[in-house]
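A further point concerns the way the authors explain their paired sequence and structure data. Showing the layout once, in full, would remove most of the difficulty. For illustration, here is how one protein appears when written out as sequence plus structure tokens:
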Amino acid sequence: MKPEQEEMDVAGIGQRLFGHSKSAEFTARRGLALELWPFIFGAGERMSGKAISEFLEKEQGFKLSIVTVNKALKDPAKNWNLYFDLVETSARIFAKEDKVSMKDMLFRKQYLFKPAENPIIKAVAKALVSDEIRYAASILRTKWYSIDWEIRLKSRPFLEHRLDGK
């Protein structure tokens, strides 16, 4: 086979693959392992990577390979730091606004509470709090304080170097 013909065949295969991907069901969930990291970490204390992968597929409809789960579990420092990248900016903004250290804020059992359901209190709070602070609180509420407190405490040694003096 001539080199030009080989290059053409590879390009043709690639084009067919890409064309098929446009018509196939969307299955890619890039970043799912990172988004689920704190929960994988917590579950990994009692479950194998295989059991976690099977649960996610059977019970939640998410395909996360055993290899991906095991790879994540083998390097908790890397994964906690990658996960913390998702919340660090919001944590810094909120800690600065509240004049409290990030360390104290992040590792309290409860720090943020759900906004009051009373429409008058909601309106007053909205008027007093900047969009940046409101967004930071939202990120912290969904990505940090949704994690079980014991798991958050176990993350601390992996994140300590990012919290010092802050």
